[in-house]
Amino acid sequence: MPHLILVRHGQSTWNAQNRFSGWVDVPLNHHGRQEAIAAARKISLYPVDVAFTSLLMRAMETMAICLTEGPSRTDSKSPVFKHDPADPDWHNWDQYEGHQDEEIPIFQSPNLDERHYGDLQGYNKATMADTVGHDLVQQWRRSYQTRPPGGESLADTAARTIPFFNYRILPLLKAGANVLLVAHGNSLRSIVMELESIPAEDVPHLEIETGEPLIYDRLANGQLRRQTEPVFLTAP
Question: In what order do the strands lie in the sheet with 224-226?
């Protein structure tokens, strides 16, 4: 049974400071790297054939850790970041074909980047709530249709994540591949909404925790179903 593994990146430096990150390319902090290591251990029981991540370093760092730190990954395939032939900015100079039996290809796409928070990026969330009101900030952060000033709504984010998922990732799952996707709170929220048919009015209650894997099984009828009690490796 093929699996889809979703992981939100570990805590970033701006997560720890309660700041809007969006497209700002902030790295993981120490705690975030520990979260990524814990995620790597949890998912190490699940084989990975191909992986996808965003262009932002906090997701890339988490991906690299997830595919190297788990105990069963040590002598397994090597993760290799590759250019996606579907990327219009790819210059076609990367002709390396790789070794399917020895490597896990990792494809990056801006379609998986975090939601763009526009004018809010860099600001402390609590300070912004004190300035313009908690309810408005919560609407900017958690509603489906409302855009923050100069930024994307979750609907805007879904308009790039869902077509990419359907075009690039879903066919691999249908072909029997195990796929690891490491991305961001909002890019993953949009994908989970689609996979689980969550209505827009319930979106404010949908949370994706940093470093906490979600496992989906691809059923015989082609549907993806989240495991309610995934089997994770937790012992030291």
Answer: 78-82, 103-108, 50-53, 179-183, 3-8, 214-218, 224-226
The pTM for the full model equals 0.92
For residues 63 and 52, give the distance between their C-alpha atoms in angstroms, rounded to a whole number: 8
pLDDT bin (cut points 50, 70, 90) of residue 98 is confident
The residues that are catalytic are 9, 114
d(CA 82, CA 232): 28
Q: Rounded to an integer, what distance in angstroms lies between the CA atom of residue 24 and that of residue 57?
A: 10
Answer yes or no: is pLDDT of 89 > 80: no
